[in-house]
Amino acid sequence: MGISSDNVHGLVLALSSSVFIGSSFIVKKKGLKKAGVNGVRAGAGGHSYLLEPMWWIGMVTMIVGEIANFAAYAFAPAILVTPLGALSIIVSAVLAHFILEEKLHIFGVLGCVLCVVGSTSIVLHAPQEKAMQSVKEVWHLATEPGFLVYACIVVIVVCVLIFLFVPKYGEKNIMVYIGICSLMGSITVMSVKALGIALKLTFSGSNQFVYFQTWFFTVVVVVSCLLQLNYLNKALDTFNTAVISPVYYVMFTTFTIIASIIMFKDWDTQNASQIVTELCGFVTILSGTFLLHKTKDMGDKATEHTIFTNEMASIEPAVFTRQGSSTEPVIFKSQGSSTEPPIFTNQRSSPEPTMYTHSANNSV
Fold first, then answer.
1. What percentage of the chain exceeds 70 in pLDDT?
2. In CA terms, which of 69, 256, 290, 314 is 20 to 30 Å from 224?
3. pTM, entire model
4. How far apart are CA 83 and CA 250, in angstroms?
5. Residue 128 backbone phi and psi in degrees, to 5
6. Dist. CA 220–CA 305, nearest whole Å
7. Over the chain, what HEC string results?
8. Is 331 left (phi over 0), alpha (psi -120 to 50) or beta?
9. Which tens digit of pLDDT belongs to each residue from 196-226?
């Protein structure tokens, strides 16, 4: 299937977004580390990072990336735009390797390649964007029973995670913080797409801000983004960046595609071959992110092994000295074959060496 001009615009914006967002993870992480030295860590409930310029640079970078991502959803379907976030994983993992010294294993590189291959497969077989004439059409899709059930389930699960799981397991299990961000992220994307369509139509001459639906989607975007930002900061401050990025991507992309299929019915205009190819591309991306996640610790262990080996090589052999008037070292020698007991000789001016022998039946 050929790629429409709208899909091309969405593709370019999505790729640019991934570069900015992937870089922002690293800059924000450095800001959070610096803020944690002088104040209460974000993972412990502190907000000292708000006074750290490095964190704000990362925040601005992320905002630029999110704006590009926002615009991409106005041109292309979510099933095309969202999986392209895999590039942000690659950018984040590579920069973390060089800047944060979070080592990237060779299989992590293979994971990056798989992400690119899977993304390419999805791009080439993505559905065409449906033309919308009014934000009311999006509202009609959002208020159908299927999506209302999905939205209610998301809200309930997020509340359970925030009030029951965060206090007990927030700093122990990465899935708590990332689960909140991913579930709310799927609702955010649907609202962003609706708002993007409203802006696109408004710039074309048809003002959509006269409808309350546009403002409702705007409020949902603001609230859900603030919630995601809070828990994403906690996750970044608590867990390894190279682990957060792939896990967040997998969960966020999965829930977003599910939400898009339910709300916008992206697969209704596609045949079985195209759907299967898109699913294979998505599974390929998941495989790549899995490799990035599982091999991150392998890079750290390799580094630890190298340090341990170098330290062992620098250790000098022990010198045993005999207690007595002599301060010269005792030399250990073995006479005859390797099966004979060793003779411990004290090298001194005395012509007769001191011998410690061990007989077969008793020990001396």
1. 79
2. 290
3. 0.68
4. 9
5. -80, 150
6. 49
7. CCCCHHHHHHHHHHHHHHHHHHHHHHHHHHHHHHHHHHCCCHHHCCCHHHHCHHHHHHHHHHHHHHHHHHHHHHHCCHHHHHHHHHHHHHHHHHHHHHCCCCCCCHHHHHHHHHHHHHHHHHHHHCCCCCCCCCHHHHHHHHCCHHHHHHHHHHHHHHHHHHHHHHHHHCCCCHHHHHHHHHHHHHHHHHHHHHHHHHHHHHHCCCCCCCCHHHHHHHHHHHHHHHHHHHHHHHHHHHCCHHHHHHHHHHHHHHHHHHHHHHHHCHHHHCCHHHHHHHHHHHHHHHHHHHHHHHCHHHHHHHHHHHHHHHHHHCCCCCCCECCCCCCCEEEEECCCCCCCCCEEEECCCCCCCCCCCCCCCCCC
8. beta
9. 999 999 999 999 999 999 999 999 999 999 9
**Band (106; pLDDT cuts 50, 70, 90):** confident
Instruction: Report the pLDDT value the prediction gives residue 52, as an integer from 0 to 100.
Output: 84
What are the phi and psi torsion angles at 346 (to 5°)? Answer: -100, 110
Give Cβ neighbours of residue 133 (< 8 Å, ≥ 6 apart): 201, 206
Lowest-pLDDT choice from 84-88, 196-200, 300-304: 300-304
Torsion of CA 78, 80, 81, 82, to 10 degrees: 70
Q: Do 136 and 197 touch, CB atoms closer than 8 A?
A: no
What tokens does 195 get?
Answer: 């708002």
Q: Are strands 343-346 and 330-333 parallel, antiparallel or unpaired?
A: antiparallel
Structure tokens at 231: 């828990």
Contacts 24+ apart (CB under 8 A), 206-209: 206/133, 206/134, 208/134, 208/135
- At 160-197, the pLDDT tens digits run 999 999 999 998 898 999 999 999 999 999 999 999 99
